[in-house]
Amino acid sequence: MRKIIGAINMTMDGYCDHTAGIPDDEIHSHYSDLLKSSDTILYGRITFELMKFWREVVSHPTGNAATDEFGLIMNDITKVVFSHTLQDVGWDTARLAEQSLEQLVLELKNQEGSDVLIGSRSLIIQLLNLGLLDELQLCIHPVTIGSGLPFFEKLEKENFFKLNHTKIFGNGAIILYYTPTYTGFPDKVVLDD
């Protein structure tokens, strides 16, 4: 069974802002590896529109190996977009969702294939509320911005998470790998080095 993995960048003060992080080579390499281990990524319209930047990187490489590799991988992965306003996604490897998030995730979860990534805050929150997220990867960047879109908003119930391990980057960013328990406080929390 495929895992449904929510992966998102956020600031130390809890805001989601794709422009506030520190996208260095190490971060790009990490996310390239994550995309390589998956075959599908789900987006909401706003995040999908931001990701279109990577088509330009493919057309006009930056000269930075890590950035250009991420662009190529992002260009190739299958993208499913949830939107009430888009009529056309304008990207060969992307399509509009034709069913509800819950229906699509249940269908994908039971198919053969690699992990499925969730790359939008709103979709991650919806899947937490539905009890369908298998793993949450929070990449916390060492920056505060004071305002913006808070990550943990619109949750319908109390959620408990088991911390499975962490990854620390040279720039001070850290990824926390959590498994939602959906039942209550986990019996044991293990920190990996």
Number of continuous helical runs? 6
What overall form do the CA principal axes indicate? globular
CATH class: Alpha Beta
Largest sheet: 8 strands, mixed
CATH homolog superfamily: Dihydrofolate Reductase, subunit A
Low-confidence stretches: none
Number of strands: 10
> Which fold does the CATH topology refer to?
Dihydrofolate Reductase, subunit A
The H-and-E topology, N to C, reads as: EEHEHHHEEHEHEEEE
Instruction: Kindly provide the radius of gyration, computed on alpha-carbon positions and rounded to a whole number of angstroms.
Output: 16 Å
**Distance separating the two termini:** 28 Å
Whole-number total of structural domains: 1
Proportion of helical residues: 25-40%
Tell me the β content. Answer: 25-35%
Strand order of the largest sheet: 5-4-3-6-1-7-10-9
Structural class: alpha/beta
Return the CATH architecture: 3-Layer(aba) Sandwich
Mean pLDDT: 91
Please describe the topology of this protein.
Blueprint: E1 4-11, E2 15-16, H1 25-36, E3 38-44, H2 45-51, H3 53-59, H4 65-76, E4 78-82, E5 94-96, H5 101-109, E6 115-118, H6 121-130, E7 135-141, E8 149-150, E9 161-168, E10 174-180
Parallel strand pairs: 1-6, 1-7, 3-4, 3-6, 4-5
Antiparallel strand pairs: 2-8, 7-10, 9-10
Helix pairs in contact: 1-4, 3-4
